[in-house]
Amino acid sequence: MTHEKPRVGAPVGPFTFPMVGHTKEYVIGEAKDRWTMLFVYRGRHCPRCKRFLNKLNTVLADWTAHMDVVVASADTADKAAADQQEHGWAFDLCYGMTEDQMRALGLYVSAPLSEAETENNFAEPGAFAMRPDGTLMLVDISNGPVARPDLDELLDGMIFNIKNDRPVRGTL
């Protein structure tokens, strides 16, 4: 079975996600004034995700000085809101990611191992950088919770890409 990769240099979506604590929805892939970094996490059941997102939250101001940051999962509104409240996350937190959206982003999708984990299929981790025109610049996906980008290194590279208007790589 092959896994479809998202096409770098191509428009993303658009995908619409409901946001914790907002009546408006977050749209990925539409033109914006700035770059956007989307981090996808497995959901409330994943302790590794929480560690990664807690680290992101501590350096969020460094990120938002250069781009918008949004985090999404397939969790329900209640689960996402519970995580945000418990951890005090300040980034835009979205929920309700569909399997069609997961697959369109090229994410790996997993079934829960038990109802104690979660009750629905969920996306494995991913990071997606989009230019202001909504095209995909950078992709980092994993098929499990243990492989994550280093946030400092990723931010440093993104700042370099933004300041130098670097071209999309990996198009051959």
TrEMBL record:
InterPro entries: AhpC/TSA (IPR000866), Thioredoxin-like_sf (IPR036249), Thioredoxin_domain (IPR013766). It comes from the Bacteria. Gene3D superfamilies: Glutaredoxin (3.40.30.10). It comes from Yoonia maricola. This is AhpC/TSA family protein. GO terms for molecular function: antioxidant activity; oxidoreductase activity. SUPFAM superfamilies: Thioredoxin-like. Pfam families: AhpC-TSA. Residues 6-160 form the Thioredoxin domain.
